[in-house]
Amino acid sequence: MSLKERKDVINYFVDKNNYNSYLEIGLYGAPRTFNNIGCEIKNSVDPNPAANAEYCTTSDDFFKDLEEDLLMIPPDFKWDIIFIDGDHYHETVDRDVPNALNHLSDNGTIVMHDCAYGDQTKTRSNPRGTDVWKSWVRLRCTRPDLKMNVVNIDWGVGVIQRGTQKVWDKDPLEKCLTNDYFVSLMDENSVNPLDSYSLYSNGQFLTDIGEGKIGTYIDDVHPNLTRTHLMPFITKERFYEIYE
User: Fold this and answer.
1) CATH architecture designation of domain 6-243
2) Which pTM does this prediction carry?
């Protein structure tokens, strides 16, 4: 399977683990991801009526209604794979991930989109910017019971599973959640490997061709970049080595 975007990562785990159920938080447009996922049971949540999600509500209200047995889905139902691509702000994602973990099957997988943004990155679909990376870093610093990696494709596709990881305890959490720290170097005295690029948003692996337009995607994971370790950031090749 060629690993190019979010749907490829999701379907890799669906095929590998014979997953049967899928939940998408933040449908936006069903043809992009939802319609391409090969699960028998599929559910979607999005508060925007234009998205035509099965549940037109916020993720907070969806999980609340689920647990209060107000939906057609049993309150103890657990999905095999859950894709989080809803509100692109850490305040919401900080709740989405624990809620997803509470309704994830024992061998399940959570996939998150947009993990590699910098604080100020703005696109047509996210005109206010986004800071999903802060939710990711919080988990990396506080949850030794998870296994986490971000694949350096499609704006950063994060993979969360139950397992083990060495939490990032090099510096206090409050410092790790700052943009300056996220884009810093492991060795401040060495050369920044991305100095030769004009980065779009002080932290995203994309060149800026001017007037807010995005240029070339930089397929590079360099050990001197702090965010490579905070994610951890991995290449497509490394993904297959880890999850084969």
Assistant:
1) 3-Layer(aba) Sandwich (3.40)
2) 0.91
